[in-house]
Design a protein that fits this description.
The chain is mainly beta. It has 5 helices and 44 strands. InterPro entries: FN3_dom, FN3_sf, Ig-like_fold.
Length: 688
């Protein structure tokens, strides 16, 4: 007897399965209240053929009893003789009642694949035999998943009824094929009766109803370890359900390393007016059916046969859009009306901007155009899905640039990375921004980007070791029509100071009757904040600060405090606004003129600490003529002197009762003549 069946299954390339690196047995267990069922299969056609010849041995090891792990697992051989397919005569009853059993019997005992005389020899015959073996293997594995009793007859399953509660077992299914013939790795399962649970409902059954059709979908991946196929049941009243297929639906898209999550099925409907109900029943590899899923229901939806078409859409001088469209008058009675819908691009999503347009109307106006618009006319039927026209692009004339960006700010880090940000423009058609940069003040700003920056921030990189201490930036905004705003206010960013300013040079000097005249030049850097002129007298080892210039444009100074015919050494340094000082200029040594500006000298000038009165007594003598007043300067050692007191020209002493006992002071007295010029000077260091 020969059975012929048509079964849909995945076609796997010839030899692909046989070429696997490892042959093994895969085992699945089904836990019932009073027994444990096992199902297994080999993973290649050649192993399947040899296993049918030699069979399988099944061993059971009791590993845990009453929640205690046994020191030595108890072994039981459940198959004294290897399990092999039952003889063909034993299949007659089941094969007559179940087509899947007949399929397995045909795969095991059916007639050999026949070749024509021309192809009965050589390589063609070998290929044909391999293809036949693969087909027998695939068909029998598919059928065994749908008929567990047939799997038992084939020696691919076993019912263990000798199990007990509170025990956990390790089952090992071992191939009886001699290793010298074919090596197949054993399979195993670790289970207990205590793990018994009821089968769950299939999950996430959904339906999309169309015109006399419905697309059903459900979550296959969630319960794929339990259910390998499904029956779909249908009802017209929600009470009596009938299966819409005789064969359960099986996922044929599953592949190794591919996680298939959903299954789909399309069913036809007789009309769009009746409510239909659907539910789902899962089937396990042990031919068990689970409880039905939740019921879903719905109706088919009529499809509108007429489609609108936009004939004309033109904005007028005031910016209003007039839209005209076509629609077959015979479809008016099927409509609720029309909608004008808008989107930013042709793919949508489109949103209604004018609703409830009468079904007999074919023209409307719209006055809220943006820089770029895509419009469709949507026919909204009384029943069924809306139908849209093809989109049309509308771009009204726009020559108005966006607002000038505001709030530009930034910072430059020590690596020269510049981070800019500004307030984003609020125009809906804003395209982006263009960034401008200049290296020096007054230089023309140069654009940095050809493609508009879409965000309100920008990162730039500058060289921090060149001489310019600042960097300058501005921003413009562009809209979708490439209208560009004016530049924002320029922001000046200070670069980190890594290089000291250039060393100044004293370029000229002259000894005159008024004093020593010094002339100099600096490097002219933008960040210079201070000039410092130092003087060292002959016989002294230290330079003292003679004068500080906050006006950095000054290039000349007259030292009128010099003494007649004395020698002085001068140096100059520049300091940046952030305190970085240059190296001192090359020193110049100058002898003051013999005819100094002052007349007469201080013959003595002393400073003594008066411990009794806790003060400093300053006393002096001089032979200066035409003396108007005396200026007394005080400083703590290593600090800049400052004017402390002015006294009359006839006075010869003064007291400093604000001096601190523990501080070392130096005093300088200078004569001021009646003509306003400076006269002689003298210094005194406090003696204690």
């Amino acid at each position: 007897m020969r059975y012929v069946f048509t079964i849909i299954f995945c076609v796997i390339a010839s030899w692909a399965v046989q070429a696997q690196d490892t042959l093994r047995i895969r085992v699945r267990a089904n836990i019932k209240k009073d027994m444990i069922q096992l199902r297994w299969a080999v993973n290649s056609p050649i192993a399947w053929k040899q296993s049918n010849r030699y069979g399988f041995r099944v061993e059971r090891y009791t590993v845990v009893r009453n929640n205690v792990v046994l020191p030595v697992p108890e072994k039981v051989v459940l198959t004294p003789q290897p399990l092999k397919p039952q003889p063909l005569n034993n299949w007659q009853t089941l094969a007559t009642a179940n087509n899947y059993a007949a399929v397995i019997a045909q795969a095991l005992y059916g007639e050999e694949f026949q070749l024509s005389d021309a192809d009965s020899k050589g390589v063609s015959r070998l290929i044909a035999l391999a293809q036949e073996l693969e087909q027998r293997y695939l068909v029998s594995m598919y059928a065994a998943d749908l008929c567990y009793p047939a799997a038992l007859l084939a020696g691919w399953g076993l019912d263990d009824k000798s199990v007990k509660p509170d025990e956990r077992y390790l089952y090992r299914v071992i191939s009886a094929i001699p290793e010298k013939t074919l090596k197949v790795e054993m399979g195993s399962a670790y289970v207990s009766l205590n793990e018994y649970t009821r089968l769950p409902q299939p999950q996430e059954l959904t339906a999309i109803f169309g015109d006399k059709s419905v697309l059903l979908a459900w979550n296959y991946g969630l319960l794929s370890d339990l259910y390998n196929s499904y029956y779909i049941e249908k009802s017209n009243d929600g009470k009596v359900f009938k299966r819409i297929t005789d064969i359960p639906l099986t996922n044929m898209n599953a592949k190794d390393n591919v996680n298939v999550q959903r299954m789909f099925y399309t069913d036809s409907l007789s009309n769009n007016t009746s409510t239909v109900y659907y539910r789902l029943v899962g089937v396990t590899a042990f031919s068990e059916e689970g409880p039905p899923s939740e019921v879903i229901k719905g109706q088919g939806r009529n499809r509108l046969m007429y489609v609108p078409h936009i004939n004309r859409a033109v904005p007028d001088a005031t910016g209003k859009l007039e839209v005209e469209w076509e629609f077959d008058e015979r479809g008016n009675s099927l409509l609720k009306g029309f909608e004008l819908q808008r989107a930013d691009n042709a793919k949508g999503p489109f949103k209604p901007v004018v609703k409830n347009i009468a079904a007999d109307k074919r023209r409307i106006t719209y006055d809220s155009l943006q820089a770029s618009n895509y419009f469709v006319i949507t026919a909204v039927p009384i029943e069924g899905e809306p139908v849209e026209s093809f989109p049309v692009l509308i771009q009204p004339s726009d020559t108005v640039p966006p607002a000038i960006p505001t709030g530009l700010k930034g910072v430059v880090d020590s690596l020269g990375v510049v981070r800019l940000s500004w307030t984003a423009n609020k125009e809906k058609d804003i395209l982006g921004y263009r960034i401008y940069r200049a290296q020096t003040a007054g230089e023309e700003l140069i654009p940095l980007n050809d493609v508009a920056v879409r965000t309100n921030s920008f990162t730039d990189t500058v060289e921090v070791r060149n001489l310019n201490s600042n960097i300058y930036y501005a921003v413009t905004a562009l809209d979708g029509r490439y209208n560009q705003s004016d530049k924002s206010q320029t922001v000046t960013l200070e670069k980190p100071e890594l290089i000291p300013p250039s060393t100044p040079v004293i370029t000229n000097y002259k000894a005159t009757a008024k004093g020593i005249v010094l002339t100099w030049v600096t490097g002219g850097e933008e960040n210079i904040g201070l000039l410092k002129l130092f003087r060292q007298e002959r016989g002294s080892t230290e330079s003292t600060l003679l004068h500080s210039f906050s006006d950095v444009t000054v290039t000349q100074y007259i030292d009128s405090t010099v003494q007649s015919n004395a020698y002085y050494k001068y140096t100059l340094a520049v300091v940046t606004k952030r305190g970085l000082s240059s190296a001192p200029s090359p020193a110049v040594t100058i002898q003051a003129a013999v005819t100094a500006v002052r007349k007469g000298e201080f013959t003595s000038f002393t400073a003594r600490f008066n411990r009794k009165n806790k003060r400093v007594d300053l006393l002096w003598k001089h032979d200066i003529q035409n003396l108007k007043q005396l200026e007394i300067y005080r400083r703590e050692l290593d600090k800049t002197p400052s004017l402390w007191k002015v006294v009359k020209g006839f006075e010869t002493q003064v007291y400093d009762d604000s001096a601190q006992p523990e501080v070392q002071y130096e005093y300088l007295i200078r004569a001021v003549l009646e003509n306003g010029k400076s006269g002689a000077t003298a210094k005194a260091i406090l003696k204690r």
